[in-house]
């Protein structure tokens, strides 16, 4: 999160919205939906993330595997949205992307980090912030502001356990994403899994070989356990 050649996909093709097939999800059943507007990483980042995830799962078998429903992603914005306004949010995001050729960007991953959650930690690969990332985030904040709810409950998240796997800290994190994780506090990263904090401290102390990758697209996901992207709602 080597160097990827600059993509030359035509703008209309690149940002043609893809509607995800299937019946209603929790995003259509709760009055408020917790969403993640994210960059989809290319195969270079996915490969690195999968390797790190396999290592973490070996150390902590109770952790989750990457891939559906825990898809690798680079969060740009998390918000609570009025569910009835989701289509308006998709349109607003599409308008932002019309002037942002995100697949031409080059991003550099340079270290691991983790967020403590009880006795374990949620780990990720951090990338360097860029003017492109900050500009995109601010545009998205402004675009979805009219449809944003101040907060939500566990029902706003995608859960197969009736919301019992949605921790209060996650609910607060999404509510406070702006400003606590935006602007100067923006921490672009790809979540790679969970493990004990003791193990993660040792992992973070090891040398990290930086690598460069590019976004492969943009998507809006329904957030779930550990703040992971669990259900794709729309992609470009």
Defining traits:
236 residues, alpha+beta, Cyclic Phosphodiesterase, Chain: A, 6-stranded antiparallel β-sheet, 4-stranded antiparallel β-sheet, 10 strands, 29% strand, disordered N terminus
Strand order of the biggest β-sheet: 1-10-9-2-3-6
Distance between the termini: 20 Å
CATH class: Alpha Beta
Number of domains: 1
Helix content class: 25-40%
Q: Structural class, judged by helices and strands? A: alpha+beta
Q: How many strand units?
A: 10
> Which fold name is given in CATH as the topology?
Cyclic Phosphodiesterase, Chain: A
Overall mean pLDDT stands at: 86
H/E series, N to C? HEEHEHEEHEHHEHEEE
Oligomer: single chain
Largest sheet: 6 strands, antiparallel
Which of globular, elongated, flat, extended, rod-shaped describes the shape?
A: globular
Contiguous helical run count:
7
Task: Tell me the CATH superfamily.
Answer: Cyclic phosphodiesterase
Low-confidence stretches: 1-28
Q: Report the β-strand fraction as a percent range.
A: 25-35%
Query: From the 3D coordinates, which CATH architecture would you assign?
Result: Alpha-Beta Complex
Q: Could you tell me the radius of gyration in angstroms?
A: 17 Å
Gist?
This protein is of the alpha+beta class.
